[in-house]
Design a protein that fits this description.
The protein is mainly α. It is built from 22 helices and 5 strands. 64% of the residues lie in helices and 6% in strands.
Amino acid sequence: MRVKFSNSISILIALTGLALGLRLHAIDRLSIWFDEGFTVWKIHQSFSEIFFLTRIDTVPPLYYYLLKSWVGFFGESDSTIRSLSALLGAATVPLIYLLGKTLFDIKTALMAAFLLTLSTYHIQYSQEARSYTLLLLLFASALYFLLLVQRSEKTVFWVGYAVCGTLLMYAHGISLFYLTVLNLYFLFSKQTWRKDILQNWVVANTVIMVCFLPWFLVYVKQIASFQHQTLLPTPTFNEVINTLILLASLPPSNPQLLPSALKSWANLIPLIQCVWMISVLFLFLTPLMAYSYNCFKRVVDLYLIFFLPIVMIFLFSVTLRSVYVDRLFFVCLVPLSLLLAINLKFQSSQSKTITAIFLALYILCNSFSINAYYHSNWKEDYRSATEYLIENAGPGDVLIFVSHVGEIIFDWYSRERRHDLIKTGLPEGIYDRGEPDSGLIVRHPQDVERLNDIVRRGKRIWLFRNRTWTHDPQEISQKWMDEHLYRQQTIDFSGIQIIAYQSP
């Protein structure tokens, strides 16, 4: 059954509206968490400082420029700093439609847009004040222009690719991998093996690299800073499997949330897992079916775009330096949605009943998955911890933050309501200027020597502990305070612990 173009536009508008609603719903329910603390810090700097300030973050400036302008217009709140990501996430839905329509047909395009709309994984990162939705949007845009170039060698398409590729490089530190993926895909396509096309391809990528040069030295400095401050475990093959599970998005972004979300419906968990396995099976059967439908090459190209980033980042992490975290593969939702959509199109040509059953199960499973996400409480609760300190800390009390991000988010929520508190970090506070990479992690006993002077400033000392496995892995700060001060009470929040001490 063919879908009329006018009807497809109406459906696409409805899907985009649904996507925006799902991504804006309860967007401020949970506290700003650790990663978003970097964003809070950056948008409070000047535009020039955002470009050069690499001390606590390794993300290029494009997203921060956009967000700083956004909150400057709409104001500062948990909702506003996250809503830009939600808007960018919803904007990806019509872009996926354009990709599907260009590669295959309108029906496949609508199916891909539908799958992305209900992706719990996509919803999660569309509700975070980070640059992942911008990264995905620009990657998909650059891919779209490459597809158009293959159909027509108009200069405007090459310009579109060069602009999107340049913006992509300024969207995230991992963008270099994804630009490489785009170019490998382009070179893999035999229809581009003509001298004139290759010349234009070289020119477009040269423009991208030249435009990236102003950031290159900062980028190198960021890499060095990341290597010094961050130690990620070397990934295993099991982590790759978990990445595929998360991208499939039939369980929630955190599968452990599913039983608590289903509660009395827990007997549906095997069904959900079964449907996910079927979807994965569909994914790997796609080439066989595509061969019969004369689109084998396009499907193989999508496989390349889907698996290549995972393979590249995995190999880089096991051989050089581990950078493997699941959210870096957020972009892979683009080819995954298209692959599942074309497979459903193949299935519908064989049996509309089977396709309808699978779609019904997909909607049911994703409904539980989205519900689990909306009712989860897995982020660090800086909001409640800050409110507790504001209400209970006395004038002149000292707040010591083990993590610099703790101090940043405390200031975000306190909104300067407590000027009478003395705040600092270890080994130094985030607001102490300078760029020493070692100044943000407690590694040695001498890193807490300044506590001798700090604790004399107030009778009551509050130790704000979070992410100590990264910022104080040997618990040096707590051991020092337990030895030299009287512990009064310990208050636990989600991912955060506050310990109150009394000076002797």
